[in-house]
Amino acid sequence: MAAIAPLERLVNALSRLPGIGSKTAQRLAYHVVAQDEAWVRELAESIYNAKKKTAPCPVCGALSEVGMPCALCEDPRRRRDILLVVENMRDVVAMERARDYNGLYHVLGGVLSPMEGIGPDSLRFGELMDRLKDGEIKEVVLATDPDVEGEATAAYIGQLLRPLGVKVTRIAHGVPVGGELEYTDELTLNQAFRGRREL
Question: Which positions fall inside the Toprim domain (predicted)?
């Protein structure tokens, strides 16, 4: 039996999501079309609204409602003297899942990668420097992935911040080399954070 064109388009769209192969995409597509129209409309609208109404937090770069600081930046219970620098929002979620860190975040939006044309101007280094101007932040913890690009980015930030006199530390390598924070278990993340070292 030949696939119906709209269903085929849905399968193709779903298979472009990370971690979704063609069989899973097909299973999800068949599930979606089997639901009632109200549920499908709600799903489609929630996807559209999430895209339309979500943007980087103007303070830290994590995801938030358009133009609004995120809940983490607004939380008065979080420490204001420590800043954890990560590559992306998924790393913020991973660190929050570990429940060991209670300071602020700064999301770079990637890592330095000259091969892909990503230089210092492509990342949120300027915003990081602006956040350190008032002197409230005493320690910056670098939590980029322990791969070549992540290490190069951490080294670059270390050199950038050294003249400011702020303490700069790097999470310990309990996170496996070549690994990604997003896929690291909570215990390993806790050990890596507790074992951070000064650069």
Answer: 81-176
